[in-house]
């Protein structure tokens, strides 16, 4: 599952991307990765970038490999809070390449 937001978007006094990572950890998700983008545009057509004038508006992506149960729990938290964030979700296989 991947969430897309901007660095300057906040929820409950913290950046939305940080909130997602913190909620995932609280729910027992085993990992999340936060990516910072250099530029992009959203559903509204607005351009977002990390140039000198728009440093706070840079795009941010949070990627998580989730089980179906973990995904349901995380989406329930979004529903509880009313937080609206664009996401993509695909069925995947995940694991480790060896035991060590």
Automatic annotation (TrEMBL):
SUPFAM superfamilies noted in UniProt: GlnB-like
Gene3D superfamilies in alphabetical order: 3.30.70.120
UniProt-listed InterPro entries: N-reg_PII-like_a/b, N-reg_PII/ATP_PRibTrfase_C, UPF0166
Pfam families, sorted: DUF190
Similarity section: Belongs to the UPF0166 family.
Name of this protein: DUF190 domain-containing protein
Phylogenetic placement of the source organism: Bacteria, Pseudomonadati, Thermodesulfobacteriota, Desulfovibrionia, Desulfovibrionales
């Amino acid at each position: 599952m991947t969430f897309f937001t901007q660095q300057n978007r906040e929820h409950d006094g913290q950046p939305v991307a940080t909130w997602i990572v913190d909620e995932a950890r609280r729910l027992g998700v085993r990992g999340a990765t936060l990516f910072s983008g250099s530029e992009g545009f959203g559903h509204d057509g607005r351009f977002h970038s990390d140039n000198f004038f728009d440093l706070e508006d840079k795009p941010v992506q949070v990627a998580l490999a989730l089980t179906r149960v973990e995904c349901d729990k995380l989406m329930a938290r979004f529903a509880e809070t009313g937080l609206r964030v664009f996401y993509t979700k695909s069925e995947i296989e995940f694991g480790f390449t060896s035991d060590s």
